[in-house]
Amino acid sequence: METASASGLDPGLYIVAGPIGNLADLSPRAADILRRADVVAVEDTRVSARLLRHAGSDRPMVPYHDHSSDALRARLIERMAGESVALLSDAGTPLISDPGYKLVRDARVAGRQVTTLPGPSAAIAALTLSGLPTDRFLFMGFLPAKAKARGDTLAEIAGLRASLIFYESGPRLSDSLAAMAQGLGDRDAAVCREISKTFEETVTGTLSALSDRYADAPPKGEIVVIVGPPGQAPVASAEDADAALREALTRLSVSKAAGEVAKKLGLDRRTLYDRATELKE
Ligand code: SAM
Q1: How far is the CA of 197 from the centre of ligand 1 (A)?
Q2: Ligand 1 binding residues, C-beta < 6 A
Q3: pLDDT averaged over consecutive 10-residue blocks of the chain (281 residues)?
Q4: What CA–CA distance (Å, rounded) separates 112 from 109?
Q5: Which residue in 40, 105, 175, 216 has a CA-CA distance of 20 to 30 Å to 28?
């Protein structure tokens, strides 16, 4: 049976989400784990040293990447039998465009306890800022750098009725937005930059307009692009509504005409009823 390690934590793997720019976003529970874990597996010891200092942790670090050797991963899995191992990435949630998937996979295969300390992720933070639909979304991470692979990836997802989330960098931004406009259609999008930091900014527009905006002025800092779903029908104009109501009134009562047009054009039934009454008179 597993017993608590010297730290008082149950042995196993603790996935610790860190801030994406603002240290104050580290949760008290995450900080507690960082102070008590027997060892903290990190991407970059220099980057994580700063967060550990902020959390008041003096725990030892060990570098870990998913391309670390199988032997190193096996040693960490072995340690989890009697010790608590925290996994931390340079920013945000581990495993999200960051190392950790293989460690969690192998920890589960070995029957180790796996606990997550949920927290910030740039993908979700950007989605909430974008003003684009949030009911269905697909996280795409970084698009391939080569034009052919990028085009193939975009073609694969062009038909999905979902908002799309991409991680990007400033120098690639304009080209990537242009490729998205070509591969996905000129959809609504949002460029979210430096979330939770001093120069946080969200700019919205069509993919082509955003590509033009950044063509001569690649932005600095960290970037997430959110792209809206395809084929959002434009909101019907008052003229469209009148034309549809006039036609429906030749066949139906005011009430039924308003109901039919409301459904067809996605407009408010009560407003259409009032307008249909006026038109009838
Ligand atoms: N694991 C991280 C997470 O949960 O968001 C993502 C790590 S990935 C290697 C780094 C990328 O995330 C950056 O290149 C950028 O696209 C995005 N990113 C991270 N922090 C960000 C921030 N504060 N504002 C905007 N994008 C950010």
Answers
A1: 12
A2: 20-21, 89, 91-93, 96-98, 121-123, 167-169, 192-197, 222-224
A3: 69 98 98 98 97 98 92 97 98 97 98 98 98 98 96 96 98 97 97 98 98 96 97 71 92 91 75 92 86
A4: 8
A5: 105
